[in-house]
Every structure is written in C-alpha cells, then in structure tokens.
Write a structure and sequence with these properties.
Layout: H1 19-41, E1 48-50, E2 91-93, H2 103-112, E3 118-120, H3 128-138, E4 143-145
Parallel strand pairs: 1-2, 2-3, 3-4
Length: 151
C-alpha cells in the first residue's frame, strides 16, 4: 500500500461549525482510523508500509507542499498499537503526513517491529531531533531518513 486516504465524504466548507459537529467528526475520524489500522494489521507478511504522498525525492522537492492533513495520526491513542502483528515490517515511511508520532510511539515501534530497518518521516514532527536520538538509543540498527535524504 503506497497511500492511504481517509475521507468521510462530507463537505464541511460552508457549514457553520459547532462543538457537537467537531466532536462527531472527531469520533468518526477515530473510528475510521481504527478500521484502517485493523485492515493493515491483517497484512501480517507486510515488509514495507509507506503512507503519504507518493512523490520522487531529490533536489528541488519540497515535502511541506504535499503534507496531508487527512492521514492516520500514527499515535497509540489512535490505534497504532493495532499494528503489533506486523513482525516482518522492515520499512515504515510516513513522509508528508500530518502525524502525531512522539516518544511513546517511537518506543513502541522499536519494541514491536523487530525487523524494522528504516524509518522515514520523523522530520515533520515538532520534536524530530529528540525522537531521532531516542530511536538511535533504542535501535541503532534502524536507518532514519527524511524526504531529502536518500538512505
């Protein structure tokens, strides 16, 4: 799977926003994400999972222009832990997604994906440098790269 797009099919463009609608949309999003994680978890022999826009990497390429808001949050709260059965996963890339990967998620990945060899996409997080250092402590064998870096 190269790209996963989640869309509830509803156009909120010209609608007045109220708190009930926001809570409903959030609840729907969480349910959708858990269904997506459950479907991905069925792919137990998966070796490479790449989420986000499929674009070439290289000089003159600006990933910020392609960052998607309608992607998986990639947090334990949103259901990332449902992917614990992907024991053969070697590459996990989430470049160009608006993710919420933090220290707990990095630790979870290091513990639950024993064959993980490459992790791409931490650059988009607020605490990217600290997360990379933490992953290097936990799993120095995992290559960490971003859009403009070719591993």
């Amino acid at each position: 799977m190269q790209y996963l797009l989640m869309d509830d099919g509803y156009d909120y463009e010209d609608e007045e926003v109220d708190s009930d609608m926001i809570l409903t949309k959030y609840s729907n999003s969480v349910a959708q994400q858990k269904r997506a994680y459950d479907r991905l978890a069925e792919l137990k022999r998966l070796k490479s999972l790449q989420l986000g826009p499929r674009q070439p990497r290289g000089i003159g390429y600006y990933p910020e222009d392609l960052r998607r808001e309608d992607t998986l949050e990639l947090t334990l709260e949103s259901g990332l832990d449902r992917l614990s059965e992907l024991k053969r996963l070697e590459v996990f890339a989430f470049e160009g997604t608006s993710h919420g990967v933090g220290k707990a998620e990095v630790e979870w990945m290091a513990e639950n994906w024993p064959r993980l060899r490459e992790l791409r996409g931490l650059k988009g997080s607020r605490e990217a440098k600290e997360l990379k250092e933490y992953m290097n402590q936990l799993r120095p064998d995992v290559v960490l790269s971003d859009f403009l870096e070719i591993p």
